[in-house]
Specification:
Elements: H1 2-25, E1 28-37, E2 47-52, E3 58-62, E4 68-75, E5 77-84, E6 90-98, E7 103-105, E8 108-110, E9 118-122, E10 135-139, H2 141-146, H3 150-153, E11 165-167, E12 181-183, E13 191-195, E14 198-199, E15 218-226, E16 238-244, E17 252-261, H4 269-273, E18 282-296, E19 300-313, E20 320-323, H5 329-336, E21 338-340, E22 346-348, E23 350-351, E24 367-368, E25 378-381, E26 391-392
Parallel strand pairs: 1-7, 1-8, 6-9, 13-16, 24-26
Antiparallel strand pairs: 1-4, 2-3, 2-5, 5-6, 10-15, 11-12, 13-14, 15-16, 17-18, 18-19, 20-25, 21-22, 23-25
Length: 416
């Protein structure tokens, strides 16, 4: 009985610990290096301390027989590395910025001297990755805050500035939610979106479940486009991991206001096809702020952010090609002249050109049936608000293509 209880407690402990370890692999970094003396000989048994200068949290390691040391699962941030050994001066290397998933190599050089003496060096670790084969781009907090972020300041859109990333056209927007892009020829569904190492993928199509358009809460973003480690898994295209900020020993905050309107917008191709002479109405406002600091110095911290986002706009729908021809205009206007958009506003469907007879089929409600004439295509768009949707169709049992030009209308009374 006691063995069963012990086994149950062990399983419970593994369920609690293992997810935290797995998440830490995608949100932390590693500091490693070799301890040597002035002649280049390795120094075993030296104490190496890696300290976060923002939170004062420190981790300690001892150099091995070959002088190497390794400290893993370190949160991203600013660090200093301290090397100590009896008979040598205390060496401090500051100014190290550890990025997400970075394997920073920081070597320590000790010089003979008294233990009370200190040698300080300020230099960052090399950003050149010499330990893994992964290929990617890092966007630090300065880039995130200063680079133009499109799609209403969605941080995931920063991926569009990386090599090998192609944005989808507007007509393919239904394939992904949020920012639509493909990497190195892979499918759109082959992207793995993460926030703080946690899954942020839309399960219905692809893209992100939760967009992040408050850049003030982002510490950094990492896009890996090739040769990413097995810890990520899931997708073959890319891994986009956004790391949010955390509190430190200092109280810090920020505030922002973002405004955009149609006065500075250009017309899209859809607007031009709809005959618009100027950009449609658009009004967007984002405002908010962040605050963070210590709950108990050197022990516990907090960070939070607030944002309000409002967006009002009208737009042009997509042009439909291959619709019924000119004689179908009365039927089209009577059957689908005024539609309801997703925003609850009426949308007028305006035909632009065409020719040929059209009649309404006795099939489903809202389904238009007509003979088609391929050479003389018509175009319809929605120049008002929203995107109007209707089903043009034709009669005939299981007909896979429109009737040929000049052919008689089908006699079947069943519409599809």
């Amino acid at each position: 009985m006691d063995c069963d209880k012990a086994r149950h407690w062990l399983v419970l402990a593994l369920l609690i610990v293992l997810p935290a370890v797995a998440a830490g692999q995608a949100t932390t970094g590693t500091v490693r290096g070799t301890v040597r003396d002035q002649q280049g000989a390795v120094v075993p048994g030296a104490t190496v301390t890696v300290r976060n200068t923002d939170t004062n949290i420190a981790r300690t390691a001892v150099s091995g027989d070959h002088g190497e040391y390794l400290v893993t699962n370190l949160p991203t941030g600013n660090y200093e590395v301290i090397g100590e050994l009896t008979g040598f001066t205390r060496m401090v290397r500051a100014g190290i910025t550890l990025a997400v998933n970075q394997d920073a190599v920081v070597d320590v050089t000790l010089t003979p001297g008294g233990i009370t003496e200190t040698v300080s060096v300020t230099s960052d670790a090399s950003v050149l990755n010499t330990t893994t084969a992964e290929v990617g781009v890092r966007f630090d907090s300065a880039r995130v805050s200063e680079l133009p972020v499109v799609n209403s300041r969605d941080v995931f859109s920063l991926a569009l500035s990386a090599p090998g990333v192609n944005q989808l056209s507007s007509g393919q927007g239904g394939f992904a939610s949020g920012v639509d892009f493909a990497v190195n020829g892979q499918r759109v569904r082959s992207n793995n979106m993460m926030v703080d190492g946690q899954d942020n993928n839309d399960p219905s199509v692809t893209g992100v479940t939760q967009p992040i358009n408050n850049t003030d809460i982002v510490q950094e973003a990492r896009l890996i486009t090739n040769q990413f480690a097995a810890e990520y898994g899931r997708s073959a295209g890319s891994v986009m991991n956004v790391i949010t900020k955390s509190g430190t020993n200092q109280f810090r905050g920020s505030g922002f206001i973002f405004h955009q309107n149609n006065a500075v917008n250009a017309r899209t191709n859809l607007d031009k096809n709809a005959g618009r002479l100027e950009a449609p109405f658009f009004l967007e406002n984002q405002y908010g702020g962040t605050v963070g600091g210590p709950i108990a110095r050197n022990r516990a911290f907090f960070f939070g952010g607030f944002q309000r986002w409002t967006q009002r706009f009208t737009g042009s729908g997509f042009t439909l090609r291959g619709a019924p021809t000119e004689d179908g205009r009365p039927v089209l206007e009577s059957g689908a002249g005024v539609l309801e958009s997703g925003a609850g506003r009426s949308v007028t469907v305006t035909p632009f050109s065409g020719a040929g007879p059209v009649r309404r089929g006795p099939g489903r409600s809202g389904c238009l049936s007509a003979p088609y004439r391929e050479p003389a295509l018509a175009e319809w768009s929605t120049p008002n608000v929203g995107l109007a949707r209707f089903r043009p169709c034709w009669t005939g049992a299981r007909r896979s293509r429109p009737p040929a030009a000049g052919s008689a209308p089908p006699r079947s009374s069943r519409g599809r």
